[in-house]
Write a structure and sequence with these properties.
The complex is a heterodimer of chains A (about 290) and B (about 250). By secondary structure, chain A is an alpha+beta fold. In chain A, α3 packs antiparallel against α5. The longest helix of chain A has 20 residues. Chain A is elongated. A two-stranded antiparallel sheet of chain B has the order 1-2. Chain B is mainly alpha-helical. Chain B contains 16 helices and two strands. The chains are: A alpha+beta (about 290), B mainly alpha (about 250).
């Protein structure tokens, strides 16, 4: 179950202002996993302050739930308990790439005529018959990507790649559907790139400041589309924007500054190109 | 028994980026031996090719799963093994299964879709899709552990388009509950199977928007379908479901 700006047929704490008190920013905390040779150990802490929901949990009518999904390995497990603090161990052999966490308080045994004194006033006088599996609290989702080498994200090659587009009749295009941003060159161009350009230091800065830069701008303008959720390139850029001091102040929702952000991510490719052009050897003239 | 060979991951990407259809038409695929390494703890089966049948997906899927039963989900999620099998050990099976490569009509897209991970997801990938379909439906507690797998393979469209790619397919309890219902209710599964499965997939997809399905066990899924059996019996066409008449 994914809760993204949807409305359920009953009020849920965590969706809009259905139920008070609203969840705070620190309602979910997931520590970086402890990695052993055979497993990943996640510690997850959930916080909600609605007294009536807490009462349901104490009485065993509801429970905290952490659903873990890993698309690549078809891993989907649901951990249920009365405590808000989870310690979950996942065998390394069971997961790969992105691991998603969806946390809830879920109804365990039927609750007839559910009403919460902290319902939004729109629900005044309204009662609901809740069944097992119905959601009382929806916490924000979280994810962890095992593929991202968080200490090696800085080279453009870690999230972008020039590839053979396979069709000479189609001009260069950018493929965002894979884990890296792929710059798809027509085969003839790719052959030239692969055999001559890629190996020549003189061309690197020009390539970075032209097609690589264009591809990155193209990707940044689309990074928030749901179809790119979980793609390694998108996750890498989001992580860098969130954590790198040089990128502080950039907001991936702000399309006005995409051009500037792309330059910062590529470490000022125009300046690098100009610096390089000024020292490039000129052919000897007769 | 020799250890199973696989391609290096970078080599898989290189092959995928530089597909030449002519290289797929010959008796064997010409690859670089230096780009091959061994898998730890996974042995190369001896008679897998003989057990694979290009005309029978279920038979091939069970053979593939049995020969690689010990494969971990992590190892099975990578492209290195499946790409190696498709290009080397099972190359002749792949050519027969996807004959456009030998009759000269295959283009780069066709080969990319069948010899590598499909752009449409794992279940629609040729060899990986077969293995994962069995992995997700095998039930060791049954007398015939492949009873539910057989139901899943009854209609390839259902496996690869409706159930397989859906998130519910990753919830083992749901897969068992739904397939068990279909096995136990032949009056539902023997006729109009395609459209009835579309109804079921659509029903749980909608229910998943208001209920946490991963929380529920197999009895819930089976019970939900039992409650809707009368409606299911009236489903006789795909259009009926897709137009929202059910």
């Amino acid at each position: 179950m994914k809760i993204n700006d949807i409305s359920l047929p009953y009020p849920v704490l965590g969706i809009s202002d259905d139920v008070l008190p609203l969840l705070k920013k620190d309602c979910v905390s997931i520590e970086r996993p402890t990695m052993t040779a055979t497993s990943l150990q996640f510690k997850i802490h959930l916080k909600q302050r609605n007294k009536e929901i807490s009462q349901f949990i104490r009485k065993g009518k509801a429970e905290y739930v952490c659903e873990i999904n890993c698309t690549r390995t078809f891993y989907r497990k649901c951990y249920k308990q009365s405590s808000a603090d989870f310690e979950i161990e996942i065998p390394r052999k069971d997961v790969s790439g992105r691991i998603e966490f969806d946390m809830f308080v879920t109804v365990k045994t039927p609750i007839e005529q559910y009403h919460n004194s902290q319902f939004n006033q729109d629900y005044e006088g309204v009662y609901f018959d809740m069944e097992p599996g119905d959601v009382l609290v929806a916490f924000p989702s979280a994810s962890y990507n095992l593929d991202i080498k968080y200490d090696k994200l800085y080279a453009a090659g870690s999230f972008m790649q020039i590839a053979n587009g396979g069709d000479d009749s189609r001009p260069t295009w950018f493929n965002l559907s894979e884990d890296k941003i792929l710059i798809m060159l027509p085969p003839k161009m790719f052959k030239l790139y692969d055999e001559k350009i890629r190996v020549d230091r003189d061309y690197i800065e020009i390539i970075h400041s032209s097609i690589v830069f264009n591809a990155l701008v193209f990707a940044l303008t689309r990074i928030n589309k749901s179809e790119y959720d979980g793609k390694q390139w998108a996750e890498s850029i989001k992580y860098r924007v969130k954590t790198e001091p040089a990128l502080k102040g950039f907001d991936l929702e702000d399309t006005e500054r995409v051009f500037e952000l792309a330059q910062t991510l590529l470490e000022d490719p125009y300046q690098r190109m100009f610096d390089h052009l000024s020292i490039m050897k000129r052919p000897v003239e007769d | 028994m020799a250890l199973q060979k696989v391609f290096r991951e970078a080599y898989v990407e290189a092959l995928r980026s530089n597909i030449d259809p002519a290289k797929y038409a010959g008796e064997s695929f010409d690859y670089e031996e230096s780009q091959v390494h061994y898998m730890a703890n996974v042995h190369q089966p001896e008679n897998l090719l003989e057990r694979m049948d290009e005309k029978d997906e279920l038979k091939s899927a069970i053979a593939l799963y049995e020969e690689y039963k010990e494969l971990t989900p992590l190892a099975a999620s990578k492209n290195d093994l499946w790409a190696y099998l498709a290009h080397v050990d099972l190359f002749s099976y792949m050519q027969k299964r996807f004959p456009a490569v030998t009759d000269g009509t295959a283009d780069v897209k066709y080969i990319r879709e069948h010899w590598f991970r499909s752009a449409n997801g794992t279940i629609r990938s040729s060899l990986a899709g077969l293995w994962w379909s069995v992995y997700c439906s095998v039930d060791e507690s049954r007398e015939d552990k492949y009873e539910l797998t057989k139901m899943l393979f009854q209609n390839d469209n259902i496996r690869t388009h409706y159930f397989g790619p859906s998130t519910i397919f990753r919830h083992r309890e749901a897969v068992i509950g739904i397939l068990e219902f279909l096995v136990e209710n032949p009056d539902i599964s023997k006729v109009h199977f395609n459209s009835r499965c579309i109804y079921i997939a659509q029903y749980f997809n909608r229910l998943g928007a208001v209920k946490q399905l991963a929380y529920m066990d197999r009895n819930f899924f089976k019970g939900e379908l039992m409650k809707r059996k009368t409606i299911l019996k009236t489903v006789t066409s795909k259009a009926q479901v897709l137009n929202g008449n059910k």
